Automatic annotation (TrEMBL):
<dbReference type="InterPro" id="IPR045864">
    <property type="entry name" value="aa-tRNA-synth_II/BPL/LPL"/>
</dbReference>
<keyword id="KW-0436">Ligase</keyword>
<dbReference type="Pfam" id="PF03129">
    <property type="entry name" value="HGTP_anticodon"/>
</dbReference>
<feature type="domain" description="Aminoacyl-transfer RNA synthetases class-II family profile">
    <location>
        <begin position="25"/>
        <end position="377"/>
    </location>
</feature>
<dbReference type="InterPro" id="IPR004516">
    <property type="entry name" value="HisRS/HisZ"/>
</dbReference>
<dbReference type="InterPro" id="IPR041715">
    <property type="entry name" value="HisRS-like_core"/>
</dbReference>
<dbReference type="InterPro" id="IPR006195">
    <property type="entry name" value="aa-tRNA-synth_II"/>
</dbReference>
<dbReference type="Pfam" id="PF13393">
    <property type="entry name" value="tRNA-synt_His"/>
</dbReference>
<keyword id="KW-0067">ATP-binding</keyword>
<dbReference type="GO" id="GO:0004821">
    <property type="term" value="F:histidine-tRNA ligase activity"/>
</dbReference>
<dbReference type="InterPro" id="IPR033656">
    <property type="entry name" value="HisRS_anticodon"/>
</dbReference>
<keyword id="KW-0648">Protein biosynthesis</keyword>
<keyword id="KW-0030">Aminoacyl-tRNA synthetase</keyword>
<keyword id="KW-0547">Nucleotide-binding</keyword>
<dbReference type="InterPro" id="IPR015807">
    <property type="entry name" value="His-tRNA-ligase"/>
</dbReference>
<keyword id="KW-0963">Cytoplasm</keyword>
<comment type="similarity">
    <text>Belongs to the class-II aminoacyl-tRNA synthetase family.</text>
</comment>
Amino acid sequence: MSGKKAFRPKARRPRGFEDKPASVLRAERRLIEAAVKVYEAWGFDPLQTPAFEYADALGKFLPDEERPNEGVFALEDDDNQWMALRYDLTAPLARYAAENFQDLVKPFRRYQFGDVWRNEKPGPGRFRQFIQCDADTVGAASPAADAEMIALAAEVMRGVGLADGEYVIRVNDRRLLDGVLDRIGADSPETRGRILRAADKLDRLGRDGVADLLGKGRKDESGDFTEGAGLDTAGTDAVLAFLDATGGSRAEVINRLDGIVGGTQSGAAGLAALSDIHDALAALGVGEDRAVFDPSIVRGLGYYTGPVFEAELLATATYDDGQPIQFGSVGGGGRYDDLVSRFTGQAVPATGYSFGVTRFATALAALGRIDGDDARPFVIVLNVEKDQIATYLGMAAELRAAGLRAEAFLGGGNMGKQLKYADRREADFAVIVGGDEREAGTVTIKDLKRGADVAAGIADHGRYLEAQKQEAQFTVPRAGLADAILKRVNNNV
């Protein structure tokens, strides 16, 4: 017999990946269900694409164009082709639309939700795997299609229980910033990309941080240095003035921007799109309180070609110490007319909306707008007599057939330990059938939530036991088990 010690791997999660408990998974599922209900009502059809795409299909639209081989998780297939886990759901949609272009009914309207993976440095609230939920229209060039996406985003906010005034959709057009860059002579694609990434960080870094990134560069708190766009003072001021041109009605923002970018071809195109979007939003009933025009919204990804927007939560919750929790942007989207054309060689207009499910669900849970608990009452049938387990399993099945959540306890231990298990599972009721109940043809039901309420107000043990029997425990005929629990749930004892 070998004396070599058996290898035991350390139980640990890879950095940037998370385990999700039941409450988180249920909250995410309810958010997805609410969004899907809106998407279906607006005529979008579901689509599922695989987790892996060929890496060249992602191309230059990886998250960081300066590190294109480090932004995704990739592996080489047995035919020497590189595959990568999808970075988002938009690039796979573009591949699907190109591959099936001749057979698609256009405009093609689809929604999809699923995991995406990003090989980036993880941090607080920044994971390498998370769920996205998207809706897109492929084949519609009109700004009305962009307006519909903006209205769709606003409707999702309503659909998850937010009231008007607790959210806002902030809208811009990337061509407006292009007009500014044309005016200051920022012609290099590399410089333009850095300016876009800098502007997209306005809400996180503030005006001074963006100014640094527009100029020579910025060193963050960890000491890492990000090279800037290299603009001079006049160029930096021009970009900042554009980002500041917000506030007031949508018409007022358009007029203000006209004085900044109206004399350029790109700027004029962006202004015309915003004007059309404003008219379409008004027709869709999306008022000025639900969607505003904001030049600071630029969206960091390089594939956007026209209107862009972000869905922002205005409602706040508080931490345990009373400090407010600011949620900020929970989703966004825009027009990306060049993404499908990478495959087809012909212009294919497209626009879409996407939100990160985990971030949005966490915010909604903090606001009390979404619940991570199963709404159905939860019943545990105790395993009082070990030779009666088949009977207890049958009772649990009977309760489930009546619409309740139910399980028969399958572990070991006495009744006290089983009741502790029921408490830890946050069960609503425990069902007890021992020898006395079997002979009498009855069942004893403990209302665990009522029992907790009773216990909170009684210190004396004897009074506690008596109160439990009178208020939190009752006996009914065996045949009336499910009905008795349902009546109790409905306060119809």
